[in-house]
Amino acid sequence: MMRMSMLLIAATFAGCATAPRREALSGIAHVSFPAAHRVASGATTADDMASLEQAGICEVISLRVPDEAPTFDEAAAMRAAGIAFHNLPTDCASGLTRAQWGSPKVGAGD
Questions:
Q1: How many H helices and E strands in the chain?
Q2: Which of 23, 24, 25, 107 is least enclosed by beta carbons within 10 angstroms?
């Protein structure tokens, strides 16, 4: 079975009051906008950091599992861009559970 890396990009958790600028994210793989102040996409690359910044992204939650590690230091690149970064390794949708999130603050208020 083929797994697709998924990245949840949140524009509200770190105090961002405005919705992400969609046009700035047009070059990111499989980008979608499932809810206000929320973006979902395929895995990002080092080249995507400028787009995330331009879009006003404040926080990224990566669902990559260890064997899908990117070819760059994703956490360091996000921090350098001023974006909070969290890795929540998840193997397919069945791996997404409330217990795994570990914090009721994530997504609170939605």
A1: 3, 5
A2: 23
Q: Which pTM value belongs to this model?
A: 0.70
Q: What are 17's two structure tokens? A: 């009051």
- Give the number of other Cβ atoms within 10 Å of residue 9's Cβ: 25
Residues 17 and 48: beta-carbon distance below 8 Å = no
In angstroms, the CA 102 to CA 57 distance is: 22
Q: Where are the domains of the chain?
A: 7-101
CATH (residue range 7-101): 3.90.190.10
Dump pLDDT digits (tens) for 30-88: 888 888 788 888 888 899 999 999 998 888 888 888 888 788 999 999 999 999 998 88
